[in-house]
Amino acid sequence: MTATSVLRIALVGAGEVAEHKHLRALREVRGATVVALADPDTVRCARVADRYGIPQRLSEAHACFSPQIADIVGILTPPGTHAELAIAAIEQGRHVLVEKPLALTLADCDALVAASRGNSVSTMTGFHMRWHRLLSRARDLIASGVLGRLESIRGTWNSPRGDETAPPWKRARITGGGAIVELGVHLFDQWRWLTGAEVIEVFARARHGTRDDENATISATLSNGMLAEAVISERTSHVIEIEVCGDEGRLRVSCQRFDGLEVYARRETAGMMGPRRRALVRTLRELPRGIARMRTLGDYGDSYRGEWQHLVDSVRAGGTPSCTMEDGRAAVLVALAAAASAASGRSVRVADAPTTLVAAR
């Protein structure tokens, strides 16, 4: 590889997240191009590859791991397959991005961490929201101390999924489906990434329907004394919001709005003239960018481009991506504790979490 060479990317999995999120974003990544797509559903694979002009279509994932095919591999398959595929790619010297959740068992997470440490490749867990423009700005504000001593963090993530389009693995908790595992790991990672604290204990409740964990709430305590709350659903209207409160102020991020970052001083409320005036100025300032990015899903869609650009740049520099396999493991461990709590009706310390997902009850 030279300083000007274009890195070759192969994606394993041609499902919804590959077609509508990753491939859409990868068109704008500098210094890399998608050269191969693999999926056992050859009809779908060909259709998605045709849409994005991908030259090589493969029915077998391991074919992507050859140095003759790709430099970087994206593992976008059901989570139960992540560890086996990613480890095989790493052992063949491929740089790897693994979609969240990293895996479904602690043993698989540990195996991925060990493989990453034992090979001279760049590996990364796909928590794309770390590259969301407004969340990155919020993290900087929190680090600056503007909120004072941090008191609490609350996240809401609703992403309605219809039964008719849900593949079998998304219907059961133990195969990676449902709000606690599929959506919750995003917020568990945000708790850690935004505050710098670890999750100590969780208490979860879940509501089931035709699928496991269609709705869930998770309360937690963090290592810095903060309280955390997650409200997640696969049945209710779309929303992704995060609020962090301190003793000197609070900030709120509405991740699907181009002007969705709000900061309030300790004695300010949303209805006061100061915050309302700032909101108007912010909307007018951000409006041109918001309109321009609307067709690419705004800052949410751009976060996928950001994570891929970060990995490509890390590969070129020979560095370690900032979202590691250890980060992926930490979020899975919280999910394991939350699943056990939801099943038992009792709080669970993360250090005492079972090593596999407890089935929904």
Helix and strand arrangement:
Elements: E1 7-12, H1 16-26, E2 32-38, H2 42-52, E3 56-58, E4 72-75, H3 82-91, E5 95-99, H4 106-117, E6 123-126, H5 133-144, E7 150-158, H6 179-195, E8 199-207, E9 215-222, E10 227-233, E11 239-246, E12 249-254, E13 261-265, H7 273-292, H8 298-317, H9 325-344, E14 348-349
Parallel strand pairs: 1-2, 1-4, 2-3, 4-5, 5-6, 7-10
Antiparallel strand pairs: 7-11, 8-9, 8-14, 9-10, 11-12, 12-13
Helix pairs in contact: 1-8, 3-4, 4-9, 6-9
Taken together, the total number of domains comes to 2
Look at the structure and give the mean pLDDT.
96
**Low-confidence stretches at least 5 residues in length (pLDDT < 50)?**
none
> Structural class per helix/strand content?
alpha/beta
Head-to-tail CA distance between termini: 52 Å
Strand order in the sheet with the most strands: 13-12-11-7-10-9-8-14
Instruction: Kindly state the number of beta strands.
Output: 14
What is the name of the CATH class of the largest domain? Alpha Beta
Number of helices: 9
Rg, Cα atoms, Å: 20 Å
Gross morphology: globular
Helix-strand pattern: EHEHEEHEHEHEHEEEEEEHHHE
The CATH superfamily of the largest domain is identified as: Dihydrodipicolinate Reductase, domain 2
CATH architecture of the largest domain: 2-Layer Sandwich
What's the assembly state of these chains?
single chain
| Helix content range | 25-40%
Share of residues in strands:
15-25%
CATH topological fold name of the largest domain: Dihydrodipicolinate Reductase, domain 2
Largest sheet: 8 strands, mixed
